[in-house]
Automatic annotation (TrEMBL):
Residue ranges constituting the NAD-dependent epimerase/dehydratase domain according to the UniProt record: 3-29
Gene3D superfamilies: NAD(P)-binding Rossmann-like Domain (3.40.50.720)
Gene that this sequence comes from: yfcH_3
Domain of life: Bacteria
Protein name (database record): Epimerase family protein YfcH
Coiled-coil parts of chain: none
Lineage: Bacteria, Pseudomonadati, Pseudomonadota, Gammaproteobacteria, Enterobacterales
Originating species: Enterobacter asburiae
């Protein structure tokens, strides 16, 4: 499954990305720095 994730560098996002990658999902994400 292709997933767009925003906030992937935050506390929850880091763990979520690791879990989704383990399940072989295609993840695209980004972050903004003010």
């Amino acid at each position: 499954m292709k997933i767009l994730l925003t906030g992937g560098t935050g506390l929850i996002g880091r763990h979520l990305i690791a879990r989704l990658q383990a399940l072989h999902h295609d993840i695209t994400g980004g972050h903004a720095q003010p």
